Amino acid sequence: MGARAVITIDGPAGAGKSTVARLLARSLGYIYLDSGALYRAVAWQASLLGLDLGGSQALSRFLADFQPVVTADARGFHLLINGQEVTQELRAAWVSQAASKVAVLPVVRQWVKERLRHLAQNGGVVAEGRDQGSVVFPQARYKFYLDAALATRAARRRQDWQGAGDPPPLEEIMAEVAARDLQDETRADGPLTVPPGAIRIDTTDLSIDEVVRQCLDRITASSEPGQLAPKPSKPV
Predict the structure, then answer these.
(1) Sheet order of strands, 199-202 included
(2) Is the CATH code 3.40.30.10 the one for domain 6-217?
(3) Is the distance from CB of 5 to CB of 124 less than 8 angstroms?
(4) Which strands make up the sheet holding 69-73, listed edge to edge?
(5) Sign of the C-alpha dihedral, residues 81, 82, 84, 89?
(6) Helix, strand, coil share of the chain (percent; to 5)
(7) What pLDDT digit, counting tens, does each position of 98-140 carry?
(8) What's the DSSP call for residue 70?
(9) Long-range contacts made by residues 232-235, C-beta under 8 angstroms, separation at least 24?
(10) Max Cα-Cα span within the chain
(11) Which 3-state string (H, E, C) describes 129-196?
(12) What is the tens place of the pLDDT at every residue in 175-188?
């Protein structure tokens, strides 16, 4: 049986990366890796400690001893910090905003990259984020880049709003998403880009199931026998 593959799914906010990656991993019996959760974990814990989220030196000292417990399988990606399950807490709007600040720092990006590569050392993973196929796993066997119209991506973000009270107006979320796009595309370390060799999929008018089916069709069409044979997944 061939080696189990590493599959990457990149793209901007609201393109459908997380949902597609989870379902694709489940379909293949692979482990799902959520790079964004690791950035949010750094932001969450550093904020609780009162650290300057823009201070590389303070964050570097903090990260030297920061060892959240990660469990990942086809059903999800879970994080425990100091024995506490924080997966849901990390989805709060303020954590996502804080994560966007630390995600531009090379020291944080290196920390996340090392942990993702450790989790993927035996293959059989679907990793999603904004630099998975370009920086973290440049040799991944299968790479996908998901995108969608700005209005569509903003509407999805609004639908998934997890902040307090009613979600902001669509126009406000569109502005926030566009600003995040610009930040991701222009940062010096690991900017958002279409990875070399990636298959681009416009998800604007596609359902999640249709996107997953396109990914599966592309993968199975180019796979060697036994390469993607599923096996029971377990925490790592």
Answers:
(1) 31-34, 125-129, 6-10, 142-147, 199-202
(2) no
(3) yes
(4) 69-73, 76-81, 84-85
(5) negative
(6) 45, 15, 40
(7) 998 999 999 999 999 999 999 999 999 999 999 999 999 999 9
(8) E
(9) 232/29, 233/25, 233/29, 233/30, 233/31, 233/73, 233/74, 233/124, 234/73, 235/71, 235/72, 235/73
(10) 52
(11) ECCHHHHHCCCCCEEEEEECCHHHHHHHHHHCCCCCCCCCCHHHHHHHHHHHHHHHHHCCCCCCCCCC
(12) 999 999 998 999 88
Token pair listed for 126: 């679907």
Task: State the helix-helix crossing angle for 150-159 and 170-186, rounded to 10 degrees.
Answer: 110
pTM of the shown model: 0.88
One-letter amino acid for residue 74 of the chain: A
Q: What's the CA gap between 47 and 102, in Å, rounded?
A: 11
DSSP strand pairing (125-129 vs 6-10): parallel
Tokens 């904020």, residue? 47
